[in-house]
Amino acid sequence: MHAADLAKGHPGAQAWDDALSDARFEFRWEDQFDLSLDPGTARSFHDETLPAAPAKTAHFCSMCGPKFCSMKISHDVRRFAEERGLTDAEALEAGMREKSEEFSREGGRVYLPVESL
């Protein structure tokens, strides 16, 4: 339904979509729930995996978790770039170089023993 409203250029559909995207990127969970098509169901789904109150302010979601959340990684890259005076592209290159060096230093193993995580 919402995708069709966007495609048809329905007044307000793009603003609503943008507001929801901004809330998602900024980890404003309550705003995400309120902007969803069905706020009650959105809260319910979220609470199935992250029921505690602090999860409503967490900077990651239950789908990816704190280590693999694409939104969190985007924030981390921007902070990394700002701290080093780099562009986002330069920060990505420097970060990948650092991770590559770390990977080599740690033995180049894809799968690590559980105790080392």
From TrEMBL:
<protein>
    <submittedName>
        <fullName>Phosphomethylpyrimidine synthase</fullName>
    </submittedName>
</protein>
<dbReference type="InterPro" id="IPR002817">
    <property type="entry name" value="ThiC/BzaA/B"/>
</dbReference>
<dbReference type="Pfam" id="PF01964">
    <property type="entry name" value="ThiC_Rad_SAM"/>
</dbReference>
<dbReference type="GO" id="GO:0051536">
    <property type="term" value="F:iron-sulfur cluster binding"/>
</dbReference>
<dbReference type="GO" id="GO:0005829">
    <property type="term" value="C:cytosol"/>
</dbReference>
<dbReference type="GO" id="GO:0009228">
    <property type="term" value="P:thiamine biosynthetic process"/>
</dbReference>
